[in-house]
């Protein structure tokens, strides 16, 4: 653990008690690292800033609710999770944008890897249980809220969230592959 991590974790008790000054210190000390992590995955400043803000909002909302032992590690995991979910949600638009860029000046090997990753994603999506697949598509392809999906399908919001969570866990590894391929392609 670095010296900075130790000093940030020293604020943990005060933060968990709702101390806004402790939160501000954590925010100041960790913002650039969280932004950097998000930017390295998204390669878009505005999206990375939005993810970073969302990470800190979630951190504040989770104070006292989560058993956070290491704030920097918690922020890293939260950033990674939110970034992957963002990519999953925006997948069609991101894929189209990447394909356009790839078609102009990227080697055929990288194009093939990216297309193969897309094919694997679509195959995994098709093999999700029918209820998970339909909820996933309603949420991420039709941009419906979990409340709208729950009402349409006659399910509770919690059930919809559980199905989405399971689908995301199943698809997460292929999203990591997309990130690896797209990072290699666009470096």
From TrEMBL:
Keyword Transcription regulation listed? The answer is: yes
Kindly give the NCBIfam families that the UniProt entry links to this protein. Answer: Sig70_bacteroi1 (TIGR02985), sigma70-ECF (TIGR02937)
The reply on keyword Endoplasmic reticulum is no
Mind telling me which InterPro entries this protein's record contains? RNA_pol_sigma-70-like, RNA_pol_sigma-70_dom, RNA_pol_sigma70_bacteroid, RNA_pol_sigma70_r2, RNA_pol_sigma70_r4_t2, RNA_pol_sigma_r2, RNA_pol_sigma_r3/r4-like, WH-like_DNA-bd_sf
The RNA polymerase sigma factor 70 region 4 type domain covers 124-169
Protein name stated in the entry:
RNA polymerase sigma-70 factor
State the UniProt keywords alphabetically.
Sigma factor, Transcription, Transcription regulation
The similarity annotation says: Belongs to the sigma-70 factor family. ECF subfamily.
Output the superkingdom of the source species. Answer: Bacteria
RNA polymerase sigma-70 region domain span: 33-91
